[in-house]
Design a protein that fits this description.
heterodimer; A: about 250 residues; mainly alpha; B: about 300 residues; alpha/beta; Rossmann fold; Alpha-Beta Plaits; 6-stranded mixed beta sheet; 4-stranded antiparallel beta sheet; 14 strands
């Protein structure tokens, strides 16, 4: 086991030990959304012909939970270690910026995928779904989890306190996921808000992910892949840079 | 080759009052296999110096080498040589003692070193706590785990930043026996402590820092020898007159006067008697490291 693998394993074990909080709770939340919105809106909202509203909801909820939990994992781990001071145990090791990056982001990806899979398993009982292109599902799940895991790492490095962290989450991450078309197709929006939605990177992650299930999407999955992929390169570059200069972690 | 070489290390911090110099051109070497003490009052710069050594802070100028490797440019190699016990009592609340140690060794790419980790647990009196969560441990036990974590990768150079602060007598004994053994086996030890009797007993050589500068650097025995003075010590129930009190070190009922010769001792005793006071349990002893320390810190201020 090399150094970064030890750190990766520590990060995975960290959330696994409190899995009621980190896995079961978000799965339950998604299930409640599914039951309430599905029950209220089924038959009243038609997004795509031939796709029921509840079935449409499943991939959106899976992706939303996956994204939010990937973000929560790296950000809360980093802020907590900074505040408790136990980040020093890692700062004293020879682990370099790539090791930190790989360990924190991959652990966040694992948490995102586990929660996403959990949401999928409890919601498909309510609304049977199809899988048209499993590769697209996998690609967007991985890319989305990595994106949010990396953003969480950046936010965790930046935030000095838990309340700064939660403003990041409450005022940026949550609105962007909710407004990205989890509960609706952006084609149902007025033209102005459609344009605005196209500026939201989260929209492409969910839209591309949904394409894998239904073979239908608001924009081409290739366009989503290019946009999300390019955004990821920028975000990853920023995270690597911050780790390399020891932003807010080395004086 | 020196185990640790501090070369004109300077560190200034910017704060509201302007630039504050925490360290000013600190230079000294610690040889391989030494047991070295770094002493100084709070705020003298000890922890700042250790943080720069450990790569947690960057020096404003100057450089530090560990076994010939540069702390800044060869940081990964340097950190493999160093085992640092931080001063703050920090811990990761998610894990057990054994998990914390396994991870710490793992970060250095070391696994299957269970024998060494068992030895650490055994010698630091943690064997029966190995599977306890860190949260369940008392402060003293957490301190032991900090020491064990610093040693998990068996580093040749061990740095202890006030490892016995707030720690009971029993652990201090256990800890020092173990660290002394590692030192005999060839590990270099750099220690900062507030307990001067510990430093006197353990450290062969000592540097004293005051306001970011090295104000004394010598063998412990030489420092003690050069402080030629004796100390007159007695107990008293009443208050000393202010002019006498100014020259004394007073701890509750205990009064101590540094005295160079018999005449000075007689002078102090006569002064106490003429003030109408009764000195009890009078004794004269050789100056110890605490006296040297107070002497050095009191000078040129």
């Amino acid at each position: 086991m090399t150094g970064w693998q030890a750190l990766f394993y520590k990060e995975v074990l960290r959330f696994w030990k409190v899995s009621a909080q980190t896995i079961a709770a978000p799965v339950l939340t998604a299930l409640l959304y599914m039951l309430i919105f599905g029950h209220l809106l089924e038959g009243r909202v038609t997004v795509y012909e031939s796709v029921s509203y509840t079935a449409f909801l499943v991939p959106g909820l899976v992706m939303m939970s996956l994204l939010q939990n990937a973000f929560a994992n790296s950000s809360s781990s980093m802020v907590q270690s900074k505040m408790m001071g136990n980040l020093v145990f890692i700062l004293l090791t020879p682990l370099g910026p790539w090791s930190w990056f790989a360990a924190y982001v991959l652990a966040a990806v694992v948490r995102g995928l586990v929660v996403g899979l959990g949401v999928l398993l409890v919601t498909i009982w309510i609304a049977p779904i199809t899988v048209v292109a499993p590769l697209w599902i996998l690609v967007f799940a991985l890319l989305g989890a990595a994106m949010l895991g990396t953003l969480g790492l950046i936010a965790g490095l930046w935030a000095d306190k838990f309340d700064q962290m939660s403003s990041f989450q409450n005022f940026l991450i949550t609105p962007m996921t909710f407004l990205s078309g989890v509960f609706y197709s952006i084609h149902s929006l007025p033209p102005f808000w459609q344009q605005v939605s196209h500026l939201n990177p989260f929209f492409y992650m969910i839209d591309g992910f949904r394409y894998g299930f239904f073979g239908k999407s608001d924009v081409s999955p290739w366009l989503s892949l290019v946009l999300v992929g390019s955004a990821y390169v920028l975000v990853a570059g920023l995270a690597y840079h911050l780790l390399r200069i020891g932003y807010k972690i080395r004086g | 080759m020196a185990a640790i070489s501090f070369q004109s290390v300077t560190k200034s911090f910017d704060n509201a009052q302007g630039a504050f110099k925490a360290l000013e051109s600190v230079s000294f070497d610690i040889q391989e296999g030494e047991f070295f003490g770094l002493l100084g009052p709070n705020g003298a710069g000890k922890t700042t110096l250790i943080s720069i050594l450990a790569g947690l802070l960057k020096a404003s100028s100057g450089r530090i080498q560990v076994q010939g490797l540069d702390v800044q440019t060869q940081s990964a190699l340097v950190r493999r040589c160093l085992g640092v016990v931080p001063q703050e009592l920090v811990f990761d609340p998610f894990f057990t003692v054994r998990e914390a140690l396994r991870f710490q060794a793992g970060y250095f790419g070391i696994h299957n070193n269970g024998d060494w980790l068992d030895e650490l647990l055994e010698h630091l009196g943690l064997a029966d706590k190995a599977n306890h969560n860190m949260r369940q441990l008392s402060g003293g036990m957490k301190r032991r785990v900090l020491v064990a974590q610093a040693l998990a990768h068996k580093p040749p150079v061990i740095v202890l930043d006030e490892p016995t602060a707030g720690v009971d007598v029993e652990l201090r004994q256990t800890l020092w026996q173990f660290i002394a053994r590692l030192n005999r086996e060839g590990h270099t030890v750099l220690l900062t402590t507030h307990y001067l009797e510990e430093a006197e007993a353990l450290c062969a050589r000592i540097a004293m820092l005051k306001q970011g500068r090295v104000v004394a650097l010598d063998n412990t025995s030489t420092l003690l020898k050069n402080a030629s003075s004796n100390v007159l010590r007695f107990k008293i129930d009443e208050q000393l007159p202010t002019d006498l009190a100014a020259q004394a070190r007073i701890t509750g009922r205990i009064v101590q006067f540094p005295a160079h010769d018999a005449a000075q001792i007689e002078h102090y005793l006569a002064a106490v008697r003429s003030a109408g006071l009764l000195a009890q349990d009078v004794e004269i002893r050789k100056a110890d490291l605490e006296d040297v320390f107070l002497d050095v810190m009191g000078a040129e201020s």
